[in-house]
Amino acid sequence: MNRAEKAVLIEELVEKFSSNDNFYITDASGMTVAETNMLRGLCFEKGIEYKVVKNTMVQKALAQLDTDYVPFDESVLRGFTGVMFSGENANSPAKLIKEFRKKSGMVSPVFKGASIDTDLFIGEENLDMLSKLKSKAELIGEVITLLQSPAKNVISGLQGSGSKLSGILKTLSEREN
After folding, report:
1. What's the chain look like in SS3?
2. Domain 3-133, second-level architecture
3. pTM reported for the whole predicted model
4. pLDDT at 164
5. Average pLDDT per 10 consecutive residues for the chain, totaling 177 residues
6. What span, in angstroms and rounded, lies between the C-alpha atoms of 79 and 103?
């Protein structure tokens, strides 16, 4: 690959990183071609883009962004590197990694690090926590449900009490007659 091709690749990566708030860095070394193809197919089904990239290219692309990705240089960008771009759902790649491991019975791909809305998560120990993150839509749905619950209780209380009250008034008026 000549300098011009490298520059184009780095520019593409800069655009990818800047347009995706969430990306995961993995190590899929040791996987067979069939296993890698299975991983790529699963990524395609889930709407996750998976790219295998040289560490130096990733480092140069991340260096051009506003966020400080220096912690990735030290421990994450070593060995074989695959990058998963997830777009809106921050937990999709983590769930995909866990699902792939379960289906294949492997420990690959290894989770090396992630950037979720510019917050950095480094190390395999963060994978479970990241897989349980709720999406923005799920959080909004929970807030709406919580806000609706008291209103529903008040309305049902008023409706229930209203029918009881009218029943009591009817009974009292019948007793007078």
Report:
1. CCHHHHHHHHHHHHHHHHHCCEEEEEECCCCCHHHHHHHHHHHHHHCCEEEECCHHHHHHHHHCCCCCCHHHHHHCCCCCCEEEECCCCCCHHHHHHHHHHHHHCCCCCEEEEEEECCEEEECHHHHHHHHCCCCHHHHHHHHHHHHHHHHHHHHHHHHHHHHHHHHHHHHHHHHHC
2. 2-Layer Sandwich (3.30)
3. 0.75
4. 65
5. 88 90 89 89 92 91 88 84 86 91 87 89 90 81 79 61 64 73
6. 25
Contacts of residue 58, Cβ cutoff 8 Å, sequence gap at least 6: 13, 25, 72, 77, 81, 83
Residue 86, pLDDT score: 84
d(CA 155, CA 170): 22
Query: Which phi and psi (to 5°) does residue 65 adopt?
Result: -95, 165
**131 CA to centre of own chain:** 7
